[in-house]
Design a protein that fits this description.
The protein has 570 residues and is mainly α. The chain has helices at 5-43, 48-62, 65-77, 83-96, 98-108, 114-129, 135-158, 167-175, 180-197, 200-212, 218-231, 233-240, 245-287, 296-319, 323-333, 356-386, 392-424, 430-465, 472-497, 507-533, 539-566.
Length: 570
Amino acid sequence: MEFGLWEILKILGALCFFIYGMKIMSLGIQKAAGSQLRNILRTITKNRFIGVLTGFITTAIVQSSSATTVMTVSFVNAGLISLVESAGVMMGANIGTTITGWLISVLGFTVELSSYSFPIFAIALPLSFLKIGKLKYWGEFLIGFALLFLGLDHLEEFIPDITIDNPLLEFIKEFSDYGILSRLFFVFVGAIITIIVQSSSAAMVITLTLVYKGWLPLDIACAMVLGENIGTTITAEVASLVGNTQARRSARIHSLFNIIGVAWMVFLLPFILPLVVNSIYLIENYFDVEKNLTSQDSLSTYTLAAFHTIFNVLNVILLIGFVPWMVKIAERMIKGDPEDSESARLKYIGGSTITPELSILEAQREVARFGEVTSRMSTFARELLLNPSETDLNRRRLLKKIEKYEEITDRFEIELAEYMTNVSKKELTPKMSIKVRSILNIGNEMERIGDDFYQISKTIERKFEEKIWFTQHQRIRLTEMFDLIDEAFKTMIENLSNPHYDNVYKEKAVAIEKKINEKRNVMRKENTIAMETETEYNINSAMIYNNLFSNLEKVGDHIINVTEAIVGEI
């Protein structure tokens, strides 16, 4: 058979057809059942053993280990699961992705599924135009499923059967005679293919097809499958680049797990592969499978799928006990960001968004963190104002600190708004739209809190420059007001930390806000009476005192506004 550029383009087109179908199918199932899957992934990861099962089920459903690992990295980034829990999920994802190999081996090469693709299209396309519930997404899933098998059918058709005297086969055979060096070379080839097509499932299909058509010996194909397990880690590594330190460590644990597994299997491959081959033959004979369904080529694809599954299961069994050790290695490889402790940058959200649900979860985690950051300004202001032992140098340090945090709140509001604007461009449910609006309002209120504390710091600075002093009663009243503000902050942070805004109630926050207003009224009345009746009462002191408690009351207003934004009232 003549094999030139045209034939190569047809093979690449069929492969792209398959990859596109897999992408559409995976995205469809994620849209149709994604929120439930994400809730499962977030809640059923109490330990790494349960995490393995969760990762397996999620990946088997969405047919994409990359989707599972990216979701996992996002959850780590948002602080919803720990590094140890994420390791279990990713291990399970490795096992779940082997389902694709079995699906292709059992159905793709033995059943003419392409003939069923057009009836599937007839059902799926009308569904994709509906706007009833999630039927549209199930239609997309079915379209992807039909495209996938059409692409596989054409891939199998366009790759020619190989002849014994084919020079490429001779080259592969010659290159496979160098023992472990040959295995390492084809591991590298498998990794490169996966990086290029950005899908270990697609790379697995390529390998299965080449084995089925006789282009690859089984041992070489197994080495390539090992390389595909390394190549698939690139997706998680890339996804983690826009995340925080913990997200990058999570992706690195996934890479370590796969690389270590491939390392030991490369050495044991000559011993394990014969066991897998013999097991497949024993199963065939035991169940007396019809020969027309189990040709030598089909048995090779079954063997490759079995090897892929056995390798990943054994790797999980061997390494799951060493997860804490791999966490420590990842922590040493990726040092903590020194700016994280200073709160000078966004920690949980980056420049890119994942799915709307995940993006909103990350934003909620971010505003909860910045609630804590903003509350520190109260501590700085209290120390600046009420600590009589502060030196001039320490006062300057605290003033700079408050100014820095005010700049942080300004930048936070801008970056949060940009991020949420990107989220709002995606397809949102009414409930998600309300959350987006709430988060934007929360960011705005926190920026105003930063402004108020900056004004408070400038008032305190003027107090020291003009050598104005407060009476003991004024200091006591300001301490009481700061105590109420800190109590309000504590309630606000509790509300922000609740991932389910629907379960937040504002009664406690409203009660504290009422106390703040009452305290402001008492202080204002006392201050007015003192100015009118006490001849030695310092007017400048009274004015600065009034500015301080009035600004603190404004802080209280913005704090209650945050809770009202959480419950969707502003």
